[in-house]
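Reviewers of the previous submission asked for a worked example of the structure-prediction workflow described in the proposal, so we include one complete record here. The input consisted solely of the amino acid sequence. No template or homolog information was supplied to the procedure at any stage.
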Amino acid sequence: MAEMKSKNRDEATSSGEIILKFEDVSFEFGHNKPILHEVDFTLRRGSKITLMGQNGSGKSTIFNLITGHHKPESGKIHLQNKLTIATAKQVIPRADSELTVKEFFEKCFKEKVYDIEPRIDEVLEVVNLKAPLDRPVRTFSGGQQARLLLASALIQDPDLLLLDEPTNNLDKAGIAHLTKFLVEYKKTCIVISHDAEFLNAFTHGVLYLDVYTKKIEQYVGDYFDVRDQITARIEKENMKNAQLAKEIQENKDKANFFAMKGGQMRLVAKRMREKAEELEEEKVDVRREDRTIRAFTIPAQKDLVGEIINISEFFVFKNHKKIARKTRISLKKRQHLLMTGPNGIGKSTLLEAIASGTVKGTQIAPGIKVGYYRQDFSTLNFEDTVFDSLMSVMDKHIEQDMRNVAAGFLITGDMVYTKIGSLSEGQKGLVALARLVLQKPGLLILDEPTNHMNFRHLPVIAKALSDFEGAMILVSHVPEFVKQVKITEVFDLEK
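From that input alone, the workflow returned the following structure tokens.
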């Protein structure tokens, strides 16, 4: 079966005609922020390719170069004549949030489409979403908005479909539905995702953007195939360098020995040193893996005593109607609640109401600091610099303390002076986590904290949440992540 799977992937990536080619493409944001350096890769018709790389490495930038929103500093991007391209972005642009569903889809086309309503109905059925055409986009849940984003790309019927983190906010049923769609999809697709299980279901190959070399490495196979290839390559390079290092040291030792003999032996010593220098030049730069965030702790507010939060009433949405329900939930120190339910039932809406203190039936103890991680990062001011955003949540504004915490989340050097809005979605998530560490809350409320995150970071985040000494309410649709978090109670909104 594995051989058949590999054969199918090889055929898919080698039989189709080339529809996209990057040739020595370099790109940078502003001065001294290189993203790509002389990148080369090709894309064949009918292939389904994963684009991987560290948060902030430039994956979304590559999409913008493909669509023409960015222009390369040097090199060429060759697109097949009349190739149509559509992108399903990570998030609904803020400017589009007030649009109705119909207006949102109309905006996908440069010219007016007169038969758009049946086309909208068709793509909404494909993404398994019921959405009244006059309903504002902002009123949909994160998972429902993810479906709208996918549908907005599909309605354009492109030759090349670009999907940027399409599983974010999707529940289990939504991911299964999307996976089935991509397995059966007949056209060409590039997907950015950190969900290995999802990717492995349909991927023919991987474009791996190396954050250090700024180049693309092209592989055949799924993520696990790529991981094995990279691991084997690193082992081979390390073995070669270890052998060279041994020979270099032997030549240096001999050179020192013969140099002490004097006379003709000094010429032998010189040749030995030259040989050592030649061997040094043969050493290879071992491929460096993506950096993982440092292990961290979210310090809890001091002197937490008794009940931190009490929930006696909540609300859900059924068929777009708000329904009130009764419950009895009380959280104290070290008690962690997992809130579950399908997309659209109202998890994010309820979390927002709890965090703001506006929901009926919920009481947070006086003086409790609430640390709120929103899936859309709307708790962050996109006009703030990272520096200002992090300093604003600190009781004592000590820059070195802030920088020490930021560095653990890969926010170093002049990056702290970057505006939040200029960061990648993954980097915004790291800033949001750093704020929680500096804030020291008594109650943590987290809405999909794994969205946009490099998969290497997830075990580190799970450990920090497990160890949190205060009360916590968590929403996550990623089972492998939830399994790693210490949960004391599950609250199913549907039941």
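The longest strand covers residues 18-28. We consider this example representative of the routine output the project will generate in years two and three.
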